[in-house]
Design goal:
The structure holds 2 protein chains of 2 kinds.
Chain A (H helix, E strand, L loop, with lengths): L13 H5 L3 H23 L2 H18 L9 H20 L30 H4 L2 H12 L3 H12 L4 H8 L3 H27 L11
Chain B lengths: L3 H7 L2 H5 L5 H13 L1 H19 L10 H8 L9
Classes of the chains: A mainly alpha, B mainly alpha.
The structure holds zinc ion (ZN).
Zinc ion binds next to helix 1 and helix 4 of chain B.
Chain lengths: 209, 82
């Protein structure tokens, strides 16, 4: 065995990880379990499912690390495992539902703006109240899966277009198109919601955050 | 948004707010925006939409116990501090 120690760009010893070093693997788990958990919650909309996917992701990661070829970032590779696990769960739940990879006909279109209300001047505190945050989550859940995963990876997790394409096996053009559709749909949903709230008196008790 | 020009620009707005478009198409969009209030509202609310999801991207907090159960499942529990 050589003494060569290959480091990943996020500072893990790939050599140790691929040799099955559990201490190094525990470090990796600690660095990424929160982002993977959140990713799963946002794709699946359910904490229990998200926890299952989190566990499956790291079980698979440990098993397949020796096959990791270093062509993508290690974090991208983890996102890829987690996303695939989440999509498989959705497929198992709804086997006759539309394909996740191919958008349905209706999803092929840009959401034409129907709601033209300027809600941007609303106080940020109100836009980010706990009720509003719940609505933000609901709006993501209302997206078709093929658009939702792209939006979550790009705009919530902050992956680049290229990385998102690597995670989902999509061209950069396809990522951009789906991101555009997702954003326009969410804009429509949020405009309906915030536009409606602008017409109301502020709720007396806005609660916590 | 009934206007044909507005529809024509719709597919470019997402890349426009990312600053990912070339000068020529940006100029075309800005020229249109100067004379179209509806599209200005759509652009602003599109930006705000992306912004709101960005600032809430650290939601939700990972519940207590998730990390422990994960480490247990991975058989790593003895290796880590609680
Ligand atoms: Zn217009």
């Amino acid at each position: 065995m050589s003494d060569e120690n290959i480091l990943t760009e996020d500072g893990f010893s790939l050599t140790a990880l691929q040799a099955g070093d559990k201490v190094e693997f525990a470090r990796l788990v600690d660095a990424y379990y929160q982002v993977i958990y959140r990713l799963a919650v946002k794709i699946l909309g359910n904490p229990q499912d998200a926890e299952d996917i989190l566990q499956e992701t790291f079980i698979k990661a440990f098993r397949y690390l020796p096959d990791f070829n270093g062509r993508s970032r290690l974090s991208t590779w983890l996102y890829r495992i987690a996303t695939n696990e989440a999509l498989m769960l959705i497929r198992r739940r709804k086997p006759d539902a539309i394909s996740i990879d191919e958008p349905r006909n209706g999803d092929e279109q840009d959401q034409e703006p129907l709601q033209i209300v300027d809600w941007c001047c609303m106080p940020e505190q109100e836009m980010l109240s706990s009720e509003s945050r719940e609505y933000l989550d609901q709006a993501i859940e209302s997206l078709p899966t093929s658009l939702r995963v792209v939006f979550v990876l790009r705009d919530i997790e902050g992956l680049s277009t290229l990385e998102t394409g690597e995670v989902l096996n999509l061209s950069e053009t396809a990522v951009k198109t789906r991101l555009s559709r997702a954003r326009l749909r969410l804009r429509e949903e949020l405009t309906r919601y915030y536009g409606d709230r602008m017409g109301r008196k502020p709720v007396a008790n806005e609660g916590g955050r | 948004m009934a206007h044909e020009n507005c529809k024509h620009l719709l597919g470019s707005l997402s890349e426009y707010i990312d600053g990912a478009l070339g000068d020529e198409i940006c100029a075309e969009i800005e020229k249109h925006l100067a004379g179209c209030e509806n599209c200005r509202v759509v652009i602003d609310s599109l930006k705000k939409t992306v912004y709101l999801y960005h600032v809430t991207s650290e939601d939700p907090q990972v519940p207590d116990g998730v990390r422990n159960r994960l480490m247990q499942r991975l058989d790593l529990k003895d290796l880590i501090d609680k």
